[in-house]
Design a protein that fits this description.
The protein is an alpha+beta fold. The chain folds into two domains: 138 residues, no CATH class; 123 residues, Lipocalin. Helix content is 21%, strand content 31%. The chain has a twelve-stranded antiparallel beta sheet with strand order 10-15-4-5-6-7-8-9-11-12-13-14, with no helix packed on it. A four-stranded mixed beta sheet has the order 2-17-18-16. Strands 1-3 form a two-stranded antiparallel sheet. The chain starts with a strand and ends in a 5-residue tail after the last helix. The N terminus is likely disordered.
Amino acid sequence: MGCKKLTYWNEVEIRLRRDYEKPALPLRVLPENDQVTVIVVYSIRYDNAKVVQRWFTPDPAEQFANPHLAMGYNPVMYVDPDGEFVWMIPNIGYSRDGGLSFGLSLVVGIPGVASAQAGIGYSPGSNDAYAYLGATVLMNTVSASYSTTGDFSVGYSVGATPFSGLPISTNLFSAGMNYNITQDSWSGNVSSWQVDQNGWRYNPSVSAMIMPEHSTNFVRKGKFISNDKMLSKFVDARNYQGALDYFGFKGDYSPDSDAFKGENAGAIGATNPNTRQRLFNSSAFESFDLLFAVSMKENRASRNVRQGKIKNNFDVDNEEYAGFKHVYRNQGLYHKHGQPLERGINYYGNLINQPQFQSQWWHFIYRMPRVY
């Protein structure tokens, strides 16, 4: 481990303010004669079995907030074969013919848009275990499956089918056809109505993920608890940096930073466009959803810094405005954040001459809980 001193001028800090009535000025430009010293700490981790893995190059999807995390510091629950999006989803399903089933799905990509998925499951009612592979593009899915009853099948479907990798799927909103290679027979479905050589029958089915937070925390820490409760354990132990590392939020816990002093004492998070360093204050740890929201906003700011989009005062104000709107539109990911985002949108909107933003009745769709 080592450190390096960097000296630079014209520091710009982008902040997510907790005090929305009077947000801090989004830009702080130092006089050209002032020098600011930043300590950058480097940590090198080698590829060995005793260290939770990190990528040497950034994850191109930046899925886990810290793009250098391998499998989000959770190689038990996640894998990442191509550096893109990956999900491990415990699920429970039900169909009229087969009854309850329990399974685990691995999805790489964006479910329903462009993804590859694989899964295993078991149906106690029919004493049948199964496995499947699938690939989906724009809700069109091709799949192959095998069950312990001896049937090997391939098929095509469109819609929210169980093979599409969606967190919630049902044949009610799907259509497709299937070829059973073992029995040399065809079948198909239109919605919940299925047809084969014996005729039509009604067989609705639904599958949904179950408590992915609890399952992940149980595998990692042996505690079947929510992310909020897991976060509270880190906070009670005053291990804030440990919480960031555990959940894969890139950045540093630095409540004593100048970014959170003086007129900026109410700031929750900050991003420095010279170093792309993301800082978190203690107030960001009030809930997992709030921490997630702050991380998402600072990730966006850091990404735009890397792309050279923030060069002057107007760019900073525009980034803050767009950043608040981005967080607002994605509230379903962290719907319990508890922050009046409209105030932040309007404050920075006024600075760049945008019309007054008002929440509309249909904006409830932004707050609907979702996982991606």
